[in-house]
Every structure is written in C-alpha cells, then in structure tokens.
From TrEMBL:
GO terms for molecular function: deaminase activity; hydrolase activity, acting on carbon-nitrogen (but not peptide) bonds, in cyclic amidines; metal ion binding. It comes from the Bacteria. The keyword Translocase does not apply. Belongs to the metallo-dependent hydrolases superfamily. Adenosine and AMP deaminases family. It comes from Primorskyibacter sedentarius. Pfam families: A_deaminase (PF00962). This is Adenosine deaminase.
Amino acid sequence: MSFRSLPKVELHMHHEGAAPPEFIRRLAQEKSVNLSGVFSEDGSYAYRDFVHFLSVYEAATQVLQTPEDYARLTRAILEQSAEHGVIYAETFLSPDFCGGGDVGAWREYLHAIREAADEGERDTGVVLRGIVTCIRHFGPDRAKPIALCAAETAGDWIVGFGMGGDENKGKQADFGYSFDMAREAGLRLTTHAGEWRGPREVRDAIEDLGVERIGHGVRVIEDLALVDVLAERGIVLEVCPGSNVRLGVYPHLSAHPIEKLRERGVKVTISTDDPPFFHTTMTREYDNLARVFGWNEDDFLDLNRVAANAAFCDEATRARILERL
Ligand code: HPA
Ligand code: ZN
C-alpha cells in the first residue's frame, strides 16, 4: 500500500533544494551556465558528503537568476507537492540567493514567488508559506541583512525566520542579533541543529536563539534529559529521515531515532529537506516509515495534526488545513 494520496503537511523543505535536476539543467541551457560537477552520469545530483552537498547545492542555485526563475521553480514545487498529497508546505527561502541580501531586490523575488504560489494554490490546492533563512557558513554578519529582509517582509506569507547551512561552523549564539530582529518583527523561529552536532547544539538553539521548532534535532537522542525537556516544552522537530540516511547521519532507517523520540513524547513531524538531492518524496518517506516502524494511517494522521499545529501560518489557514486532514 502506498500513502501517496494521504493528506500531508510538510514543514522542512529548501526551496532551491526541491528543484528537480531536469529543471536546473533546462535553466542552465537557457542561460548558458556551465554546471560541470553538479550532476552524475545518470543525471542526478552528485555529491560525496554533506559539505560537498552544500557546495553542489550552491552551484546548481546559480542558474536561478531572476524573480521569474523563482516563480517557475515555485510552480514546479507546488505540482510536485500536490502529486504526493501535500496540502500545506513551508519552504526555506534565502535572500542570499534572491537578490544578494538587498531588501529591494528581495521584495521583487518575493512578489514573483508569492504570485506563483497563489496561482499554484488555485490550481493544485497546495498552500505554501515561506521561511526566510540565513546561511550559517556565510557567517553572522551576512545573516543581519537577511534578517532585515525577513523583518521587512514579515506577514501572512513570510511567516518565519530560520537558519540552514553548515552546522559545524560557529555557534547558534553568534546569530542571536538576527534571530532577535526576526522575533521582534513577529516571525516564528526555527534553526537547523542536532543533525551534524550533538545535543549541545539543540540546547543552544533553544536557549540562545529561543526557537520553537528545530530542523532535524534528531541527535538530541544522545541526551535523554534534554529529550525530556523538548517533550515538556513542546518543541517540535522537523525530522527528515530520508535526508539523514542519504547523508549518512544514520546507516539505515531502522537505526533512526524518530520512533524513540516519538515514544518519549517529543513532537516529531516528517519532511523531505531537499527531495531530488536525497532521492526522496513525501510518499517515499511515509512508505518507508510504515515498512520499518509499522506506522499506519492513524499514526500519520497524528503526525500531520502535530505538523499543522506547529505550522507558522495564521490561525484561519491552520483551521483550513486541519479540516482537510
Ligand atoms: N541542510 C542544511 N542546509 C541546507 C540544506 C540542508 O539540507 N539544504 C540547503 N541548505
Ligand atoms: Zn534542511
């Protein structure tokens, strides 16, 4: 049995990371951008490890040069999401790639993305919202103009602020200024933590940045006292099991802590991260979790309710999503 048509809520996906390789190849051809090293012989994205993945990701992103390119990508994302039963998704958008951190340029990109999302919602029924994201390995000084872009466009569509990139660089606290600015603008907060570094990073994310959701967070399992803190405070984990296995955080799904975290009362949700990079889809994630952990439709309904309640959208949108689950 496949869970393709089951309604799903996805909270953790990178906008550029959802671009199918064919989409990137087509744009590269149109713009005569040389993407040698980005693809393997079979046409999929080629990378050796996480740090190399980040550099291939950034190389592929070079073909996205205009607001219209992002509008096209947004339409492709919504079609892909709809094919896998997703009814609500949040994607990470990086003004670093959309106008280089300039607020005026970012507004133009956002306008195009939003128009495409509204049109896509009418066609597919998928509701999309954006989380502005700074990039950790670009450093805290470059995060500040990104937080300003976020603050200036905070509202009913840009609903959150977050951080991706290389978790092994610097500390969460280095980005406190940017997260404070975003919080003061009314944005909800999440950050990648506890994927490459251990529980300490998850603690820092909560204590130093005050986030209410954590991207991945799975290595918190190495500190059960902290697992209990997450459960008590209702901190939500955006778990991406296929990404974790593909990048070697865990050798296979049966070694993944998602089941243990859930049993211990942590609010877990399921996402794809960068689906074509990790050869995954929401359907594949659900099918694999069902096979390995025996989860059924009721388990997934529970998880999707958790995700809908943790979504950063306004309450009217949340009510619409909950009704469709
Ligand atoms: N992890 C961290 N940073 C990222 C990712 C990811 O999967 N994709 C794009 N930036
Ligand atoms: Zn991610």
